[in-house]
């Protein structure tokens, strides 16, 4: 398929669970693999940061103006029908919760993506070719008796309290502590999987990354906060501003949180991250 027209080609793969606690009716152990494409007619600039030897990249200018406007309009009109709080204590101090898509909305978003998200999928396909690597998502949904972890996440915010920024610091995953699913080995003469504990990106091991796209209201300014704060072992902070249509790639075991909001009083605005 040409990288210039049509949808990215994606196929489903079944994933084996390695933790019985996720063997529940709500778990969907399917991952989605991006078929390689040979060319990508996109111009963009790349900003790199290193955090404890781990990589953080920011891509500027990847999307067209039309894609940016389309995703803004999509974000303004789509349903984010579930509430999510920055921390367990958020309700105690009256925080306005963020909004996210429910399972049906996430599936519609992934299966029939806005043009910008389809363009992002094609970047994944191109990276698969350039790196001679298999690029696939996490399992669609891992659900135990209390929580769910989804391979697609959305976070629509109109504010973020300082306390939530502090308490919300987290890693998206940490393969050194163990994964709940198996990752198949590539180029193996027999069918086998990587161990469920490994150093992220170590030689011969998978590299697990998080990819995030910001979309904002037209009146949103990067000075209004709600970007992402990343931390090293010494708690040194790197701030990535929230800018419309900016892409952030980072190794998912880097500690991070959503920056507090600084939207002027009386101004209504929003930002959303598609992850």
- SSE succession: EEEEHEEHHEEEHEEEEEE
In round numbers, the mean pLDDT is: 92
Biggest sheet overview: 6 strands, antiparallel
Question: Considering DSSP H and I runs of 4 or more, what fraction of the residues is helical?
Answer: 10-25%
Main CATH class of the domain at 41-127 and 151-177 and 202-274? Mainly Beta
How many beta-strand elements? 15
Which strands sit side by side, in order, in the main sheet?
Answer: 3-4-13-10-15-9
The helix/strand class is alpha+beta
Residues in β-strands, percent? 25-35%
Judging by the overall fold, what is the CATH architecture of the domain at 41-127 and 151-177 and 202-274? Sandwich
Q: CATH homologous superfamily of the domain at 41-127 and 151-177 and 202-274?
A: q2cbj1_9rhob like domain
What oligomeric arrangement do these chains adopt? single chain
Shape: globular
* Distance between the first and last residues' Cα: 25 Å
Q: Which residue ranges are poorly predicted, with pLDDT under 50 across at least 5 consecutive positions?
A: none
Q: What's the number of helices?
A: 4
């Amino acid at each position: 398929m040409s990288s210039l027209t049509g949808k990215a080609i994606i196929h489903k793969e079944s994933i084996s669970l390695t933790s019985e606690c996720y063997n529940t009716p709500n778990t969907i152990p399917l991952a989605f693999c991006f078929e390689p494409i040979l060319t990508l007619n996109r111009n963009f600039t790349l900003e790199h940061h290193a955090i404890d030897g781990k990589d953080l990249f920011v891509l500027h200018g990847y999307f067209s103006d039309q894609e940016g406007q389309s995703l803004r309009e999509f974000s303004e009109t789509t349903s984010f029908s579930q509430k999510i709080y920055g921390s367990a204590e958020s309700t105690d101090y009256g925080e306005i919760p963020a909004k996210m898509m429910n399972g049906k909305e996430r599936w519609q978003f992934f299966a029939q993506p806005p043009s910008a998200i389809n363009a992002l999928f094609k970047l994944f396909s191109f990276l698969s070719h350039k790196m001679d690597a298999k690029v696939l998502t996490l399992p669609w949904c891992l659900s135990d008796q209390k929580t769910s972890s989804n391979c697609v996440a959305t976070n629509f915010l109109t504010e973020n309290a300082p306390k939530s920024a502090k308490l919300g610091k987290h890693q998206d995953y940490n393969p050194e502590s163990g994964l709940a699913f198996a990752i198949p080995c590539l180029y193996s003469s027999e069918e086998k999987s990587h161990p469920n504990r490994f150093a992220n990106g170590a030689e011969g091991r998978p590299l697990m990354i998080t990819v995030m796209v910001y979309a904002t209201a037209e009146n949103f300014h990067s000075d209004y906060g709600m970007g992402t704060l990343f931390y090293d072992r010494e708690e040194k902070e790197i701030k990535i501003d929230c800018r419309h249509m900016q892409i952030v790639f980072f190794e998912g075991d880097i500690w991070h949180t959503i920056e507090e909001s600084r939207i002027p009083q009386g101004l209504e605005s929003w930002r959303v991250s598609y992850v």
